[in-house]
Amino acid sequence: MTPFHGTDPKKFIADFHTSFHDELVDGDEDTGVIVDRYHTPDIVQIADGHRMDREKLIAHARPVRKNRPSGVWEVHEAVANGDRIAARSTLHVTNRNRKLTLEVYFFGQFTPDGRMRRGHSLTRTVPLDAAPEQAPGTPGRQEASA
Amino acid sequence: MTESTYAVSGMICGHCADFVTEELQRLDGVTAISVDVDNGTVTLTSENELDIAHVRAAVDEAGYELTAARD
């Protein structure tokens, strides 16, 4: 059984990021519980060469809750194979009154119940004057906190 | 010149480093800032010894937590 249960991989990955960050930002539930709902205990994420484990994900929840970033995940394409998914996205973030646009190239592995077990991503900051206009309603777009 | 290293939790990427740097560079007397995301440390070079309370407040303002001073 795949983690995706027939769901469009674009929607799966957009929903994953969106709901995880929304729960961190909007709720007051213990951040460890939220992290564990979305990740396995042995989660390893490597983002731009920086390694994150469960402890670091929980520690990062503090600035996320304080700064309450908002953003939009725009998933351009995603493919799934078994328990793995690859996605190319653009993340539009506003954090501490600063707007950021990031291209995100992601490879991940998920459990059958949808938790992330492993994630690798590379990002590229898009210069502000090069960022395209946002078009609401594009498939795979999700309002999210980042 | 004085150099002090502090442990800061919650940083996971270069953007985290930018946010912490942005607040620390407002401190009087700071001449250089070096952030090591993977080790969770920030090293400040300053003209005079810094008050850790001011450093902690700047880190907190960025949303992160100063957990220890490591001279």
Overview of this protein structure:
The complex is a heterodimer of chains A (146) and B (71). By secondary structure, chain A is an alpha+beta fold. Chain A has one domain: Nuclear Transport Factor 2, Chain: A, CATH 3.10.450.50. Helices cover 27% and strands 43% of the residues of chain A. Chain A is built from three helices and seven strands. Chain B has 71 residues and is an alpha+beta fold. Chain B has a single domain, classed as Alpha-Beta Plaits (2-Layer Sandwich). Chain B has helices at residues 14-24, 52-61; strands at 2-9, 30-36, 41-46, 65-70. A four-stranded antiparallel beta sheet of chain B has the order 2-3-1-4. Classes of the chains: A alpha+beta (146), B alpha+beta (71). The A-B interface holds A 47-48, 50-52, 56-57, 59-64, 66-67, 95-96, 100 and B 9-16, 19, 22, 37-38, 62-65.
Structural class of chain B: alpha+beta
Biggest pleated sheet of chain A: 7 strands, mixed
Spatial order of the strands forming the largest sheet of chain B:
2-3-1-4
The fraction of residues in strands of chain A falls at 35-45%
Q: Report the C-alpha radius of gyration of chain B, rounded.
A: 11 Å
Number of H- or I-type helical stretches of chain B: 2
* SS content category of chain A: alpha+beta
Tally of alpha and pi helices of chain A: 3
**Uncertain runs of chain B:** none
Helix content of chain B: 25-40%
SSE string of chain A? HHEEHEEEEE
Number of strands of chain B: 4
Unreliable stretches of chain A (pLDDT < 50, length at least 5) are 135-139
Q: Write down the domain tally of chain A.
A: 1
The first-level CATH class of chain B is given as Alpha Beta
Name the overall outline of chain B: globular
Measured by residues with Cβ under 8 Å of the partner chain's Cβ, the largest interface is: A-B, 18 and 16 residues
Helix content of chain A: 25-40%
**Multimer state:** heterodimer
